[in-house]
Amino acid sequence: MLTISEEYFYYLKFEKGLSDNSIVAYKNDLQKLLDFLSDAHVEIDKANPAHLRDFIVEISSIGVHPRSQARIISGIKSYYHFLIYKNKRSDDPTELLESPKIGFRLPEVLTVEEIDEIISAIDLSKQEGQRNKAIIEVLYGSGIRVSELINLKISNLNIDEGYMLVEGKGSKQRLVPLSPQSIKQLHLWNIDRNILNIKKGHEDYVFLNRRGAKLTRAMIFAIVKDLTELAGIRKNVSPHTFRHSFATHLLENGANLRAIQQLLGHESITTSELYTHIDIRFLKKTIIECHPMLKK
């Protein structure tokens, strides 16, 4: 006997005539909602409008583009309309669910190819070349904020175990996995870093300028802007763009919303005790399985 979800996908294929690719997209989007509701211990056919609004806020907060949000909302509405059609629900919890205004501009999201182009634009023959490559790899490989990057300390790196301790907003700390590529570039940068004349009080900071002092936010913005122009990319790219790209690419490749939220250091949008703890091993597994740079 088919489950209601299986019936729904058959309905999309044979009655709506959707292509296999479209049905896969519907399945992936519905799975995101299922994962979100599962963390809140709510069955999908019992979800109310508040649960669905929280889900939309969640995907918006991790940087999903409004067009992608609109597609996900459209899929959710289609599913609940099907439940009503099958007499599994008498009400429509999506009735007041609004799609985002497509004209509203969120920070740009880079494609994997564009990130490759930015990395390729780095001149490794220059003194700062390896440092800049490590910066881009860490920004895109972990999704950390620019403030977290410039304050990253050597004493908070655990290269052997593959993670770093990051201090986010409100001095809240979290463990963030380091991708194998980030680890490789950090090792190479450390070779160049060791020949710098490091200023007193800056010895523990990972990323330094030529004079051996901690980098500033403005310096990171300038580095990203220069590399973007060298790569010939016309998008409005900032350090935060890599954070949005990190989250969006993980989501598009099937990562769990709760894992992405944990990686980004976002506050829970519903009661925190409803969610199960996600340990560092699970977060590392999420990046390894879902990060497009590693999947290649």
Describe what is shown at a glance:
This protein has 296 residues and is mainly alpha-helical. The chain has 13 helices and three strands, in the order H-H-H-H-H-H-H-E-E-E-H-H-H-H-H-H.
Explain how this protein is built.
The protein is elongated and about 75 Å long. The model is unreliable at 268-278 (pLDDT under 50). The longest helix has 20 residues, at 20-39. Strand 1 and strand 2 form a beta hairpin. Helix 2 (20-39) crosses helix 4 (66-85), helix 6 (129-142) packs antiparallel against helix 8 and helix 6 packs across helix 10. 53% of the residues lie in helices and 4% in strands. It is mostly helical. It contains 13 helices and three strands, in the order αααααααβββαααααα.
Q: Given the helix and strand composition, which structural class is it?
A: mainly alpha
Major sheet details: 3 strands, antiparallel
**DSSP, total strands:** 3
**From the alpha-carbon coordinates, what is the Rg to the nearest angstrom?**
22 Å
**Quaternary structure classification:** single chain
Averaging pLDDT over every residue, what do you get? 85
Percent of residues in β-strands: under 5%
**Main sheet strand line-up:** 1-2-3
Q: Please give the alpha-carbon distance between the first and last residues.
A: 38 Å
Helicity, in percent?
40-55%
> Total helix count?
13
SSE sequence, one letter per element: HHHHHHHEEEHHHHHH
What ranges have pLDDT less than 50 throughout 5 or more consecutive residues?
268-278
Rough outline: elongated
